[in-house]
Specification:
The protein has one helix at about 95-105, and strands at about 5-20, 35-40, 50-55, 60, 65-75, 80-90, 110-115, 120-125, 130-135, 145-150, 155-160. By secondary structure, the protein is mainly beta. Strands 1, 2, 3, 4, 5, 6, 7, 8, 9, 10 and 11 form an eleven-stranded mixed sheet that branches. Strand 9 (about 130-135) and strand 10 form a beta hairpin.
Length: about 160
């Protein structure tokens, strides 16, 4: 039996995604430390995200169908490395997707997801381990989407609100 075991998990109950530049975040735990949850306060993330997409209006882009995250893991000599693969379908918005990818390129990203039940979780990318691309499909219904892939030492990190 191989030591490299892979676990795959798909999350599709996402109603919103906010993307932040790690350099602008005040993380309570460094991204090179594996964690399962953190307590987020008002100073953890900047007031405005670098980019956002929601299933409702009022963001940089509107999610067309269901945004998904596929998380896979592989064991190596220094522990598990998780690959977080985001797929965000947008409402036929090629110019919006182009602008979003330009904003994100070359940055270390933190992606915060809001789930249907109101819970929030995040992916925190390791330095220089993020790739953003545009997924354009031309068919009967033209669609465009953004794909973001990042490597992390943690699976999805649950965000807990600071208790008062």
């Amino acid at each position: 039996m191989s030591e490299n075991k892979c676990l795959e998990q798909v999350l599709d109950d996402i109603v919103g995604i906010e993307v932040y530049d790690l350099a602008e975040c005040n993380m309570p735990v460094p991204v090179n430390v594996a964690v399962l949850e953190i307590i987020a306060n008002v100073n953890t993330f900047p007031e405005q995200p670098l980019w956002s997409a929601w299933k409702s209006e009022g963001s940089d882009a509107m999610i067309l169908d269901a945004a998904t995250i596929k998380i896979s893991s592989a064991a190596n000599a220094s522990g598990y490395i998780y690959t977080h693969s985001y797929s965000i379908p947008l409402d036929n918005a090629c110019a919006i997707a182009d602008a979003a990818v330009m904003k994100m390129q070359g940055k270390n990203l933190v992606l915060v997801c809001t789930h249907r039940d109101g819970e929030r979780s995040m992916s925190a990318a390791l330095p220089n381990a993020t790739q953003t691309t545009i997924d354009e499909q031309l068919a009967k219904t033209d669609s465009v989407g953004i794909k973001i892939e990042c490597k992390s030492l943690s699976p999805m990190i649950k965000l807990k609100a600071e208790e008062e």
